[in-house]
Amino acid sequence: MVNEQDEVLGSMEKMEAHQKGVLHRAFSVFIHHEGKILLQQRSLNKYHSSGLWTNTCCSHPRLNESLTDAGSRRLKEEMGIDCPLKPSFHFIYHTQLDSGLIEHELDHVLFGSYQGAVYPNPDEVMDYKWIDWNELTADITARPERYTAWLQILIADYKQNIEEILFP
Q1: What digits encode the pLDDT tens for the residues 124-162?
Q2: What is the rounded end-to-end Cα distance, in angstroms, of the chain?
């Protein structure tokens, strides 16, 4: 659990934090290559937002785990890939999810560049694809129901931040 300045207030189990809507630290990883973003379709086994398309991976750091270590760990666990990650910006969002859960997260956005084979974990990922940035932003606008809430927020509110990283 954190406050709006990202100062740790304590710890809580992930499910309890999502049931109570407590602000907690999270991260979202974007892997890119030549103007394309690696997306994943969340497994149907996920406890929320199952079957939806989202950024390359996302999760929560463990207590006292750095954001880059947490991002690298989950990138390997979910997508079977490894590359250096660079923290960029963070944002706070609060939204109601399916299954009555609440996302209230201070989400740190990490970027990495990668080209090579992807080995998704079927317990985490149903499908994946590389998608052109402009195609992704157009599709989220046309069919938002296909995407996770946090990816919709990132595209709607932080598109310029992301483009500055993807297209320096």
Answers
A1: 999 999 999 999 999 999 999 999 999 999 999 999 999
A2: 34
Which one is catalytic: 57, 78, 103, 105?
105
Active site residue 105: yes
Query: Of 58, 78, 103, 124, which residue is the catalytic one?
Result: 58
Beta bridge partners of 103: 95
Spatial CB neighbours of 64, under 8 Å, sequence gap ≥ 6:
none
Q: Which amino acid is at 10?
A: G
| 0.90 exceeded by pTM | yes
Query: Which value, in Å, is the radius of gyration of the alpha carbons in the chain?
Result: 15
